[in-house]
Amino acid sequence: MSVAMDYRESADRAGMSRMTARELRDTFVIDGLFQPGQLRLSYLEVERAVVGSAMPVDAPLILPSDKALAARFFCERREVGVINIGGPGSVMLDGQRHDLDRRDSLYIGRGVESVSFASDDPADPARYYFVSYPAHASHPSKRVRRDEARVIFAGEASAANRRVIRQSIRPGIVDTCQLVMGFTELESGNVWNTMPPHTHRRRSEIYMYFDAAPGRVMHLMGDPAEPRAVFMDDGEAVFSPSWSIHSGVGTGAYSFVWSMGGENLEFDDMDVLAVSDLGVGAGTGEGAK
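^ thats the sequence. predicted structure below, dont judge the formating
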C-alpha cells in the first residue's frame, strides 16, 4: 500500500499574524482524515509529530513507514497513541490482536514492527485516529477501554463549558516516553472548551474534533494578545505550537481528541491565561499572562 505523507511546517508569531484565513487552515488544519478504505499521514514540524487516520472497510490497512522517517518500519523509533471514534474493530501488533470499541484507546510502543487496522463490520467501519512522537525507550503496548480512563469533570453549565475529560494514555495508566492523549466530551447544551485558555511552553498540543456534525467549531489559536480563529468541521485536526493558545466554541455539543508531546508528561503543566489577557493588542508577546 502506497501512502504519501503530507509534510507540515509551522510558523512563528509574526508569520501567523500575517496569514489569511486560507493560509491559516493550510498551515495548521489537517482535513480529509477519515476516508473509507484509506490511511492518511501528516508529518508535523512541531515536535516531529505524525498525525494519522485509518478507516478500513473491506480489508485491513497497514501502517507504512515513509522516507521522511528514515526508518525500516514506522515504530522503529516511535510510539503511537490510537483512539477509535467509529465502529468496533481491531488493531494487530506483530500478530497480536487488540479489539477496540468506540472511544477505546491503544498505546503502541517503540519497536513494534507490524501494525494493521481492521473493522469488524464494513457497514459500520472503525475510524482510527492516531498521533505519534519520537521515542527514546520501548514501553509495552496496552489497550485502555473508555471506562478505564481517568475521568475529570470540568467546567460549569452556567459558562456553557461543562465537559468530561477522559485521560486514557497518561502516567499511572500507560507508560510512555512523551505522549499524553485522551478525549473530552461536552455535555448537551455546552459549547466551550478550555476557556479560559492556556499555553504549554514545554509541550505542544493537537486537537481533533469529532461528533460535531452538522455543526462546526470555531477554534481559537495563536498569540494570546492577537488570537486567530479557524472554523473546524467534523473529523478535522489542528495543531498548536507551544506559544499558541488552543480553545474552541461550537454551534452545538461536540467531542475532541487531544494529544500532547514534548518535554514532560505532566497533564497540568500549563500556563493559564485569563479571559482579560486575550486580544489585548500587539507587543505583549511571550509576557502575556
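The first strand starts at residue 6 and ends at 8.
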